[in-house]
Amino acid sequence: MNLPEKMRAMVTMGHGGLEQMQLHADWPRPSPKAGEVLIRVGACGLNNTDVNTRSGWYSKAVTDATTGDAFDTVSEDDPTWGGNPITFPRIQGADVCGHIVAVGDGVDPVRIGERVITDNWLRDESDPDNKDKTGYFGSECDGGFAEYTVIRASNTVAVQSDLSDAELATFSCSYSTAEGMLTRAKVTDKDTVLVPGASGGVGGAVVQLAKRRGARVIALASEAKHGDVAALGADMVLPRGPDDLRAALGKEKITVVADVVGGPYWPNLIDILERGGRYTCSGAIAGPMVEFDLRTFYLRDLTFTGSTVIDPEVMANLVRYIEAGDIRPALAATYPLEDLREAQATFIAKKHTGNIVVTP
């Protein structure tokens, strides 16, 4: 196959606002090294990690809520998920769906032509369970906001599905994050799970994946999105932040809170957990700094788990769920690559339900 030497790519030039993303029409196309594959990108999902890495929000120097704008002070030592430095220019974008069009040494050429989605955690292949030896696709290395991208062959999962590339590009980050949270919290069919921010990509995935486990799901979302969230399978949908959450829940007994929101409302979430309940967190879009009463924590025998690096088998499991029709995409909108700034602005505004995807 004759492949072009150049490609279109949206390149992030440094920490800051939307202006840091610049479209290049003649960016060098990457070539796969040993153990890698070259993917012609069909679609790439947009996630909070793209916004937060660009803005530098992951840095401990930042204590504000996610805004998508530039921050006055960003430490250059810890502005990524893994707390590592990031180098620019960088092609962001992690949730790739596309076709393998070339392979590097050591990769079976039979894989050329496969339709794949990406497993975005870049693990040490000799020590895959070591969380200290991980990076993230589109963060510590270039990702999928381009016509082509390279990734290790072991980080691609073949998928057989009638879903479009854009629909499949909603799964890798949001759904793996959600499944990781539910796994850490050991959610079963005996649980009732409260999901703040249920209209977002991760929140909506938590709703579906918790229901798949047989749990009862109570969702929090703005009232304009209640119909969309209910369609994902939530058993009850409440306003985003009820003044009296305990009263709003009625007789519901919450055993698990699966949270990506945080912020000022956070103490209310902890106060309604049943004794022995579990809180699992993989985000803090409303603000990372919260008021925490240790007495509630220990007197109620609560368990808190953070969830970032997912277990290696999660992506293979998600593809099985996709192919079996157990979970479905929540695709809010699709934008062409050149409109990625507009797509991010829409994403940041949070007026949509589900995921936003770009196509090259």
UniProtKB/TrEMBL annotation:
<keyword id="KW-0521">NADP</keyword>
<dbReference type="InterPro" id="IPR013154">
    <property type="entry name" value="ADH-like_N"/>
</dbReference>
<dbReference type="Pfam" id="PF08240">
    <property type="entry name" value="ADH_N"/>
</dbReference>
<feature type="domain" description="Enoyl reductase (ER)">
    <location>
        <begin position="16"/>
        <end position="358"/>
    </location>
</feature>
<dbReference type="InterPro" id="IPR036291">
    <property type="entry name" value="NAD(P)-bd_dom_sf"/>
</dbReference>
<dbReference type="GO" id="GO:0070402">
    <property type="term" value="F:NADPH binding"/>
</dbReference>
<protein>
    <submittedName>
        <fullName>NADPH:quinone reductase</fullName>
    </submittedName>
</protein>
<keyword id="KW-0560">Oxidoreductase</keyword>
<dbReference type="GO" id="GO:0016651">
    <property type="term" value="F:oxidoreductase activity, acting on NAD(P)H"/>
</dbReference>
<dbReference type="InterPro" id="IPR011032">
    <property type="entry name" value="GroES-like_sf"/>
</dbReference>
<dbReference type="InterPro" id="IPR013149">
    <property type="entry name" value="ADH-like_C"/>
</dbReference>
<dbReference type="Pfam" id="PF00107">
    <property type="entry name" value="ADH_zinc_N"/>
</dbReference>
<dbReference type="InterPro" id="IPR020843">
    <property type="entry name" value="ER"/>
</dbReference>
